[in-house]
What does this fold into?
Amino acid sequence: MTLLLIFIGFAATFIGTLAGSGGLINLPAMLLAGVPVHNAIASNKFSNMLSSFSSFFVLLKRKEVKLKAALKIAPFSFIGGIMGGLIASSLSERTMIIIGISLLGIAFLTSFIKKPPQQNDGHERLSLWSYPSLFGIGTYDGMFGPGQATFQMYLFFYQGISYLRTIAYTRFNTFLSCFGGFISFYVTGYVRWDVAIPLSIGSLIGAQVAVRLAGKLSKSVVKLILRFITVLLLIQLVYQFLGGNL
It folds into this structure.
């Protein structure tokens, strides 16, 4: 079980760092391994919290992103994560799946819209709608999670932000929303350390491998990976939704 969780953590975070939606892999895999849904989500928040910060720190150390710019948008994801964790028990999994399908469908369609010119000065100018969007994505991540990093990557790409800085901002915001969600799940007693720790070990390794590979990928390859992951996630969410009605 321990080795399986390490592998799940590695695979999910490797994909999640490059294109988002690592939850497409680890949540279903943990459920198939017999981990109860609330324990699986809580463990996922803990492992994502650690792996996301580790990959962000690498990019920060390389000066691919400025800490001041990241901190400017940090409160929206952190508070959203806390809110999401607190209201997770009041929303059914089916409701969250409907939300996920809607958001991913919109994100997939907007991926074909021509983006603004890429900003290369390191001083990103986000539009006003980006901040409530980050809060909403953080809330979704605190509640459930799969697809949140993909939503964020689309959001930052649409602002004309480069791929590496998009990864940096996405991993930093994922760290914050997962931290907020983890606090809520920890207080309610849903954290299982025998699941969270091996999952985190795999996630940390996957994050470090992915963040070092990211700089070698072309923009066209990134777009293809992102759209492919989005379609897979949409298929999975629609299947879960339809399965709940059978």
User: Anything to note?
Assistant: The two ends are 31 Å apart (CA to CA).
